[in-house]
Amino acid sequence: MMKFFFALVFMIPLSFLKKSFWLNQYVYFILVFLLFYNLSFNYLFLNVSYCFGVDLLTFVMILLSFWICSLMILASAGIYFKNYYYNLFLLIVLILLISLFLTFISMNLLVFYLFFEISLIPTLILIMGWGYQPERLQAGVYLLFYTLFASLPMMVSIFFFYKKFFTLDFFFFFIEVNSFLFYMCMNMVFLIKMPMYFVHLWLPKAHVEAPISGSMILAGVMLKLGGYGLMRLMSLFLTVGMKVNYIFIAISMMGGFLVSLICLRQSDMKALIAYSSVAHMGLVLSGIMTMNCWGMCGALVLMLAHGLCSSGLFCLANISYERLMSRSLYLNKGLLNVMPSMSLWWFLFTCCNMAAPPSLNLLGEIMLINSLMGWSSLCIIFMSLISFFSASYSLYLYSYTQHGKIYSGFYFFFTGFIREYLLLFLHWFPLNVLILSSEFFTMWI
Amino acid sequence: MYYKFIFSSALILGTLISISSYSWFSMWMGLEVNLLSIIPMMASTKNMLSSEATLKYFVTQTMASTILLFTVIMMSIQLMYNLNMNSYLTLILNTTLFTKMGAAPFHFWFPEVMEGLSWINSLIMLTWQKVAPMILSMYFTLNLMYTSIIIIASMMISGIMGLNQTSLRKIMSYSSINHIGWMLSSILITETIWLYYFTIYLLISINITMILKTLNIFYLNQLFMSMNKSPLIKLMFTLNFMSLGGLPPFIGFLPKWLLIQSLVSKTLISISITMTLMTLMTLYFYMRLTFSTILLEMNEILFYSHPMPNNTFVWILNLTTIIGLAFSTLIFNFM
Fold first, then answer.
1. Which residue among A84, A125, A160 sits closest to B294, beta carbon to beta carbon?
2. B48 is a domain residue
3. A235 near A165, Cβ under 8 Å?
4. What ipTM is given for this predicted complex?
5. Domain for residue B11, yes or no?
6. Which helix (H) or strand (E) holds B1?
7. What pLDDT digit, counting tens, does each position of B287-324 carry?
8. Which of A191, A244, A409, B248 is 20 to 30 A from A117, alpha carbon to alpha carbon?
9. How many interface pairs between A and B have CB atoms less than 8 angstroms apart?
10. Would you call A156 and B264 a contact, using CB atoms and an 8 Å cutoff?
């Protein structure tokens, strides 16, 4: 995997080149293409060099990060057209991708933690630098301090773990630690990153203030860091997990339901999508917390599906925003009248968000329903409520934006660019076609 | 101006006398030489505040030195009978050294003295003046309980007091109080880590103060207007503050990493968690300094040009502090 690392490092000068916006984007796609050559259906760490290696779980994650980062550049063409520090933007995206890549491929908990923390800074710069309102300051501070508040105790507990067990390699994580305090210190940062209900407040704030690229990377990859970390660490906590995991399952199931209700009364498109990701990540979290095979695999599938789907929805919201200069659902009405082709994409993505058949979301939800039902049959209550309300808020988003009379306050409108259709297609295609090879996501355990 | 050369060499000499002597009396003497040689360097005819700062610094340091001398004499009387280093006199000895380095709750002179100094003098005050008291406090066993209280007080007070400051010198001095807390905890366990910590803190401090000196910036709002010509250089400069706060991709994380690891290996877990969480408060006011940069376009006044710092200088120093963590393992080749 060092070849990809060096490819990324040597792209740093490329991002300073004038007019190199699309060149950078092509290189990202070429890297995705090259990454596919390394595909292997193996649950063991392959391509090991230094403390980096790739197993199937990692592979899925780095594929997602490369994909989302290339689509981020495709989506933020506005920065290039307005000449708004696009070289700096390319540099920040590149640093973000490097840190995410190294986070996912590290086989050592401390290295993982280090790059996990590093990925926070470019995200922060992305949100604060290219966001729209002055409130982005507050959003950035929320993002930083929510994460850091929990991650510093994690660092202490990593060293404690090293002192006790003399290893931090994921490969040796079959040691059982039966301590609730240790469990909380290790996992709280991932719970905040996911985000679990109760500690999710930074997410809607960050999303409504972030530029499109920031929203895409947050929804697409940053939330998945939390799930990835929990998946890696859950094998340490088998004993204590049996005792306390029900708390987190209960919080995230109940929270998923409540957040779905909150979605139904949003008037901001991005806030709605952000809250819907809290609900979906609640499902992922409870799937991981059941610690059974269905749950783990379903969590991975739903993470991938949610990464593509909600990133695509954010793109759609941004496409409307660039035309109407508003994200309000009261102004974004009747878009079917002016952009009928874009309406198709709205339909397809909201369908995926409500887990309609050909999408990965459906597979993920079915697997998580299996897992949670196997864990406790009482879960069916909240599971069905979450499923139902996710359908209703997706429909709410779709019908409010597409149907009805068009807002009379704007006089001209430009329809979708080919770039935007390409962007949406590249989100949608893997989301609905990958289900044909879904064994790919179940073989990593 | 030539007198400054004499006094600065005497300043260095004083510290070196003090840290390399093997009797308490010559340690005291070195401290006094150090103090007496920084006083004329601090005084400036151009600035009214500097004489106040000089006076305050002189009074507090002399008081601390006097108590130090007094304690040493008392101890030498006592030590004739028993070799008890854990007596209450050691606590007083600790306290004098903590006062000299400006650890909270003996810190009250520190921000006020800093407020009246130029950036060069501030740099001396932030870094070199800490060397002698810190190394002297390595020479006897610190009382764990007492030092822990001092550490946590430094962390809390610097975190809270720094929040509403707008003067960069005061912010730097409160950040220094915070770092004193970290360095005291490294003195408690491993002196080598103190060396790493101090060196890296010195590096970041030099970087920040030198650029602020070049641009003649003393207050927070002046940062908004400066270096707007090149956002990349400004970003690199302000990332130094995050480095000072100890965020991972920067070199400032390295000493904290080493220190937390050795604290945890000595099972001082609760104090290390407390320290890391208290540092978040200081991180908040470092963040406030970076806001002007990270919000890329706050105000753009094209006709008003500030001087830019020398590019090569900025790049070399800033790259050292920013990507230094990646190359930090090279240090071990030389040690």
1. A125
2. no
3. no
4. 0.90
5. no
6. none
7. 988 888 788 775 556 555 666 776 777 788 788 887 88
8. A244
9. 72
10. yes
